[in-house]
Amino acid sequence: MKRSLLTLSISILTLSLLAQEKEKMQTNDLKIAEQLKSGNSKDVLFSFFQLGLKGLTSDNKSLTFNSTLFALKLKSNPKLLKDNLLTKENFSRNLQFNIKLNLDSSYKFKGLTGGITYAIVNQRDHQLAVFTSGHLQKKIKIDSLHTEYFQRLKEASAKLLLTKDIPVEKKKEQLAAFNYSIDYMERTGLTDSIPDFILNTFEDKGKKLALQHEELIKMRKEAYSMIDKGWLWTISANGTTDHLNQFKSGALSTVILKGNNPELDIRSTFSYVDTLVITKISQVKLSSAAGLNFALLKSETGNLIEFKPYLAYELILKNPIANEEKSVFFANADLRIRITQNLWLPFTLKYDLEKNNFLGFLNVSLNLNPLK
Amino acid sequence: MININVGIYGGKAPIPVKVHIDNLDNNNDLYFSRTSSFNETYTLPAGRYSILVAGMNPEDGYTNISVSGNFREEPLPEASFTRKTPSYAVFFYIEV
Q1: Is there a contact between A153 and B56 if contact means CB atoms under 8 Å apart?
Q2: Cβ atoms of A353 and A324 closer than 8 Å
Q3: Pseudo-torsion of CA B63, B66, B6, A218, nearest 10°?
Q4: B80 touches A: beta carbon within 8 Å
Q5: Which among A81, A298, A311, A327 is most buried, taking Cβ atoms within 10 Å?
Q6: Residue A50 has pLDDT above 80, yes or no
Q7: Inter-chain contacts counted by CB atoms under 8 A, chains A and B
Q8: Whether residue A361 sits in one domain with residue A322
Q9: How far is residue B30's CA from residue B50's CA, in Å, rounded to a whole number?
Q10: Are A252 and A364 part of one and the same domain?
C-alpha cells in the first residue's frame, strides 16, 4: 500500500517537474494568439497598455503612454475580468486614451499631447470571440471535435473508478494523478511520462487524445487568425500644447484596417496647427494615406518583420507658409521589426515624389498586457 | 444537493463548457453545457458520482471550477481547480 502511494507520488512529482521544464521550452499558446496580431494593428488599437518612444532620429521626439478605460477600471475592480461583467464593458474596452510628452532634439520639453480613440467597429476583439457562432462556426468545427475529446476523457475517467472499495487515500492519489496528467498534456501537448495506469484507461494509451488536443489548439489559432482579418475602424481626437502649455494644435483622425497579410490600411487626419514663423499662423491641413501591410517574416509566435508601403497625400487647406507646397504626395513605407514578444521598432521611410527627397524616422513601441 | 461553480475570466468562453455528472452505480447520468460562467445547484440521489468539466479558456484568460454541497465523501482529489491552459478538463469524485 505504502509502496503504491510512493510510486504515485513520485509519478506526480516527475510529471510536475517535466511540465515545468516543457513550459520553459515551449511558448505558451495563450500568448500566441495575441502575438499573431500585426504590429500595425496594435498601433491602431492595443490590448491594454502601450508605451512608445517616437521619432528617435528626428527633431520631434515623443514619449507616449496609451491605455484603455477598461484597463484602468480593472485596476480598481479586478472582478470586471469575469465574463458576465466583461461583456458589459464594451464601451470602456474600446475607448483608449493617450498622453504624449513632446521633446525636441536635445530631449527638452516641447509640450503635451492628449487624446482619445474609440473603436466604432471592432471585429478583432479576441476577448469576445465565440467559435460556435457566426461565420467561424461554419468554417471551424471546433466544438464537435471538443465533444469527441470530452467523450474520450469521460470514458477514461469512468474506467479509473470501475474498481470499488479502493481506500480513500489511494483514490485521491489516483484522481490527482489523472487530473495532473490531463493538465500536463494540455500544457505540453505530450503524453510521455504519464503513468501507465492513467494511459491504460485510454484504449490507445492516449495517442488519439493527444492528437485531438493538438488539432483543437490548431483550430483555436486558426479561429483567432480569422478574427484578425475583420474590420477595425477607429476615430480619434487629440490636442497639443506648447512648452508654455498653450493650445498649439488639434486633430481629428480615422483609421480603417481590414484583412491580414496583406492588411488594408486607410487613414485620414484633419488637423489645425498654430505655426509661429514671423507672426502666428493658424494652418489647417488634411493628411490621408492608404497602403497594405505585409508580414515579411513570420514565426510560430507571430510576425517578426512587417513592411507597409503606402501613398500619402497632404493638402494644406488654409494658410500655407511661404514657399510651402499646398499639396504634397509621398510614397512612404513603414518597416516594423519585432525585438521581443511585445517590443516593436517601427521605422518610417518617406519619399517626397516631387522633390525626390528621402526622410527616415525611427520609433519604438512596447505593448503591455497585465494578464501576462 | 451539490453545487457546481464555473467562473470564466478574461473574456467569453470560445466554446461551451461541457459537464458530465456520471452516476457510477446506474445510468442516471446528467450531461449539459453552458456558454458562460454558471453557479448551479443539483439534487442528486444518494450514490457515487464522477463529475467531468471541460472547456476552453478565453485568450489570456482562466477558469475557476469548484464543487461544493452536502457530501458523504468530500470531493476528490480537490474541491476546486484553476485552469489557465487554452483547453482544460478537470475530474471530481463525490459521494452523496
Answers
A1: no
A2: no
A3: 40
A4: no
A5: A81
A6: no
A7: 146
A8: yes
A9: 11
A10: yes
Residue from A3, A179, A183, A182 nearest B77 by CA: A179
Instruction: Please name the residue of chain B whose CA is at the shortest distance from the CA of residue A175.
Output: B77
Residue A192: phi, psi to the nearest 5? -65, 155
Q: Domain count of chain A?
A: 2
**Whether residue A20 is found in the same domain as residue A78:** no
Over residues A310-329, the pLDDT tens digits come to 998 989 998 887 777 888 88
Residue range A205-235, pLDDT digits in tens: 888 999 999 999 999 999 999 999 999 999 9
Q: Identify the bridge partners of residue B49 per DSSP, sorted by sequence position.
A: B23, B94
Domain identity same for A219 and A80: no
Contact status of B9 with chain A (Cβ, < 8 Å): yes
Query: Cβ A34–B59 below 8 Å, yes or no?
Result: yes
A47 and A26 in a single domain? The answer is no
CATH code of the domain in which A360 resides = 2.40.160
Domain boundary among A226, A259, A276: A226
37-76 in B: which are within 8 Å (CB) of A?
37, 48, 50, 52, 54, 56-61, 73, 76
Residue A25 has pLDDT above 50, yes or no: no
Give ipTM to 2 decimals.
0.94
pLDDT band at A236 (very low <50, low <70, confident <90, very high): very high
Chain A residues within an 8 Å CB radius of B76: 168, 171-172, 175
Residue of B nearest to A183 (CA): B88
Residue for grid cell 488634411: A286
Which of A128, A132, A157 is best to mutate for the B interface (most B CBs within 10 A)?
A157
Considering only CB atoms, which chain A residues are within 8 Å of B78? 176
Single-letter amino acid, residue B95: E
pLDDT of A1: 45
Residue A117, domain extent: 39-88+95-124+232-368
Percent of chain A with pLDDT over 70: 78
